[in-house]
Amino acid sequence: MQKIRILLLKLGIRSNLKGFHFLLYALQLCLASEDYLLSVHKTLYVDVARHFGTSRDNVAHCMRTAISSCWNKGNRKLLHQLAGYELAQRPANGEFIDILYNYLRQEG
Prior knowledge:
Number of helices: 6
Order of helices and strands: HHHHHH
Distance between the termini: 12 Å
Largest sheet: none
Number of strands: 0
């Protein structure tokens, strides 16, 4: 969990955003079972929402806000490095989670 937290902070996502905590938990779930990557909207968001006592739509919105923060004010260069290619536009939630998931799996 600490590794994920540090990565999100390095990307410029502040821990005072709800999306930070939603992404942190979502990545933990994905690392425990990569099946979540196959059903982000119907499974991952639902389980994150249940854990935090909120709605699936709120989870998606808050994650999108955190990702926008990374894209607009954060460390975009690091995000490109993690992805392995230059992103032409802000990644969607599922793409962002997938990029971080694969980086974290690779780093072990």
